[in-house]
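Design a sequence for this backbone.
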């Protein structure tokens, strides 16, 4: 039997390299580094192949049962849960995978019940975005929060009754459970899995206590206007950009529009260069993935098993290239989504174009909000200088 895969680095390549001091880089390089700089030393092709097994099981089971759409939903839960293997809590990826599986199931139910035609979604998305921003100092928990918000937005595109929402949430959870069991076998961590499940209540109590401390710190930061080292400004920006982008999504009134707030959420970073960098890379990667996958579907008409194989292939590439290059990762992820939708007879080529456009809109919204914040800060700094030295012009 092959050696169990190592757990990939928790931080993406761009974050890992920030800790190493060096000479300043040109602004152009900063803005485009996620698009053309490749860190092949961080690829995980061999290790991540194991995590595609659960996705394949879900898809094949759906085909065999005559319900490919159900297999598609379960596979999406398994795929996202597999990314949890790259984020450790207390030295193990299993708690992260448990949390994200349960969190996605809950958010699937909430998103489907709220629906994108309901104003309630705007409020919920903003609150969830603020909560995700407050977790930014805790990478693994922050990643779980991010996936929960993404799942909420995706589920809102399919507004159904509470009963149907329960079924879809159960399928997401089932896919996550299959991934969890497969990962425990591959990582030879069944004993750890049992221990983590038994201590789930303790994790929840500890997290509740940590959340109380986080929000108490936030209240004190707002009261005393001390923003240095505080997650409040970033959390507030996330809430604002999600409110704006979700309202745009609602006004556009088509299902693929959820990619607008989802993209805004994923590309908005604490720094302006990071935000622009991520926006460029994700937009370019999404356009490329949408075009390539769509051309393939137009000229080739693969059967269900071939489509399932393509879904598994791009799942593997998404896992393996996450820390190599964000644009390359976005190509793989977009291709995975297009083929997954086509697997369940949803017109993937048609939605690919809409998703590419929505990605561009979402990226521009995130970048626009970040620029407004920077302009506001520059004006405040100017006022402070004028207050200290009246000889300086006010404009």
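Sequence:
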């Amino acid at each position: 039997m092959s050696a169990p895969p190592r757990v990939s680095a928790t931080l993406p390549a761009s974050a890992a390299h920030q800790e190493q001091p060096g000479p300043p880089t040109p602004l152009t390089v900063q803005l485009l580094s996620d698009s053309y700089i490749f860190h092949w030393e961080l690829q995980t092709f061999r290790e991540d192949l194991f995590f595609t097994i659960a996705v394949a099981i879900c898809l094949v089971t759906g085909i065999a049962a005559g319900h490919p759409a159900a297999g598609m939903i379960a596979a999406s839960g398994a795929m996202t849960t597999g990314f949890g293997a790259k984020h450790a809590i207390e030295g193990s990826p299993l708690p992260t995978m448990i949390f994200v599986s349960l969190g996605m199931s809950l958010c699937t139910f909430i998103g489907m019940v709220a629906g994108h035609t309901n104003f309630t979604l705007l409020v919920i998305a903003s609150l969830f975005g603020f909560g995700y921003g407050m977790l930014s100092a805790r990478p693994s928990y922050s990643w779980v929060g991010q996936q929960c918000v993404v799942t909420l937005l995706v589920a809102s595109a399919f507004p159904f009754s509470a009963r149907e929402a329960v079924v879809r949430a159960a399928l997401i959870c089932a896919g996550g459970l299959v991934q969890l069991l497969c990962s425990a076998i591959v990582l030879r961590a069944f004993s750890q899995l049992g221990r983590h499940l038994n201590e789930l209540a303790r994790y929840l109590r500890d997290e509740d206590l940590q959340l109380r401390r986080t929000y108490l710190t936030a209240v004190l930061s707002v009261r005393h206007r001390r923003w240095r080292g505080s997650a409040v400004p970033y959390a507030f920006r996330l809430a604002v950009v999600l409110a704006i982008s979700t309202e745009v999504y609602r006004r556009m009134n088509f299902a693929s529009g959820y990619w607008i707030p989802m993209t805004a959420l994923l590309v908005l970073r604490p720094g302006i260069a990071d935000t622009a960098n991520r926006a460029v890379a994700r937009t370019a990667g999404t356009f490329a993935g949408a075009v390539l996958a769509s051309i393939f579907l137009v000229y080739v008409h693969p059967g269900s098993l071939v489509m399932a194989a393509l879904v598994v292939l791009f799942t593997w590439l998404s896992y393996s290239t996450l820390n190599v290059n964000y644009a390359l990762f976005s190509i793989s992820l977009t291709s995975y989504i297009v083929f997954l939708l086509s697997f369940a007879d949803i017109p993937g080529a048609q939605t690919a174009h809409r998703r590419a456009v929505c990605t561009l809109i979402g990226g521009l919204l995130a970048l626009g909000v970040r620029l407004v914040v920077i302009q506001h800060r520059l004006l405040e700094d100017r006022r402070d200088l004028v207050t200290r030295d009246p000889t300086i012009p006010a404009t």
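The mean pLDDT is 80.
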